Amino acid sequence: MSTNEQKMPPRARTRRAGEPPRAGSLTLTPLQRRILGAVVRARSLTRADIARELRLSRSNLSPVILDLIDDGLLVSVGQDTSRGGRRGDLLGVAGPEAGVVAGLEIDVNRIRVHVTGLGLDVATARHELVDTARDPLRTLELAATLIAESLDPTYGPLVGVGLSLPAAIDSERGVPTVAPAMPLWVDFPVADRLAERLSTRVFLDSDLNALALAEMTVAHHPPLGSTYLVVKAHEGIGCGIVINNTVFRGSQGSAGEMGHICVDPDDPTICACGHRGCLEAVVSPANLAARARELAQTELSPIIGPLIAEGSLTMDAIGHAVLEGDPVAASLMRELGMRIGFVLAGAISLFNPSSIVVSTARMLGSQVLMGAIRHGVYERAFAGATRRLQIVESGLGDDAVAIGAATLARDGFLGIAGRVASSRGIAAATAAD
Asked: Which structural domain, as residue segments, surrounds residue 344?
């Protein structure tokens, strides 16, 4: 490598006031990445803590930490609690002025963008309802435009984009391989196209894994433990899997497709994946409407009944009706929860997780759903695997996937996660991973 190739480009501090952010222009050494990675994992650390975490001497770390402070990447956030000696300064990662990542969620009916600093505090959020399934290229152009419009001139460089899709991902090629809800996206060079458009690095993963990453960034009380499941129970059903604090993606990126487990082989509904009897198909809007019609013949349904006649039954409508005391809505929600619980029972017996986090996007009536899920789990799962199991509802709401995508970009840029997700773009060949 020539001297010119080895020379580091200017860092964020050389950017003139008001100058637009330069995508991907923040270059760090491997040791700088390790230091920042340790700090973001802990949220704040003293210099002594960093030395212990990295098992390096403070004298070796001191000049590197000073460089990170001078470059505006590390900032003082207070003082540590005294342990009998001098109180140390706590260091945390700087805000978006030092550098940003973008979390991009593309689902069948929406695009959601969260731009955050390396500490994952949301600086800008955008949301647009759009049919994404028909035209991958047009959708990516719109997504890139939303990201570009979200980059305030006061932000530092855009150092990476995390992109989540409702699909299994080929981590070598950076493409979706199985996408029942978005078949035109299969084998489309999603990560490459977006990386070219934004001139930065793109990390690609499934929405289920993004959900798991999001929950890993949130403080839970009590803690989730090191092995847990994050269940998507809205607009489709799936499961992110965390084993020993690492997202488990499976050998071909298809782990967690809980919605395509067969729960009723006699059900005639054909799932988007092509099979019959899948959990996601059995609880589809069409099947829920059919079941609602059956229940409405024997129970008074002041809210659900008219919706069935109009053909406008949705999960949000069912949730609203649950809160209004509609008995048919409550029955539908309980049946949905029980079916999810039965499938989860098998996963619990296999993985023996310490926790289950259910992401309902703060769906109305979710208390009824959660109660039924717990009932289904404890009725069917191996008793030894549920002895200390906690089942909780996520507090992240419908921003969870975008937050997880931002986490993916941040962790990928800092090399925290290693080679666990598809990475494409101008810096994909660096040694950071």
From this structure: 219-395
pTM of the model: 0.87
Inside any domain, residue 14: no
Q: Which two tokens stand for residue 256?
A: 């967690």
Q: How far is CA 82 from CA 48, 52, 65, in A?
A: 13, 17, 22
Assess contact for 283 and 337: CB atoms under 8 A: no
- Kindly report the CATH number assigned to the domain that includes residue 64: 1.10.10.10
**133-178, pLDDT tens digit by residue?**
999 999 999 999 999 999 999 999 999 999 999 999 988 888 999 9
Angstrom distance (rounded) from CA 368 to CA 335: 10
Tokens 């990560």, located at residue: 191
* pLDDT band, residue 94 (cuts 50/70/90): very high
CATH of the domain at 417: 3.30.420.40
Our count of domains for the chain comes to 3
Question: Tens of pLDDT along 331-342?
Answer: 999 999 999 999
Has residue 192 got a pLDDT over 80? yes
Cβ partners under 8 Å of residue 263, min gap 6:
277, 278, 279, 282, 339, 342, 343
Q: Which of 236, 246, 178 is nearest to 212 (CA)?
A: 246
CA distance 58 to 52: 9
Pairwise CA distance, residues 307 & 284, whole Å: 16
- Dihedral (Cα; 265, 207, 195, 137), 10-degree rounding: 50
Residues 282 and 337 grouped into a single domain: yes
How many Å apart are CA 349 and CA 339, to the nearest integer? Answer: 16
- Based on the fold, state whether residues 27 and 60 are members of the same structural domain: yes
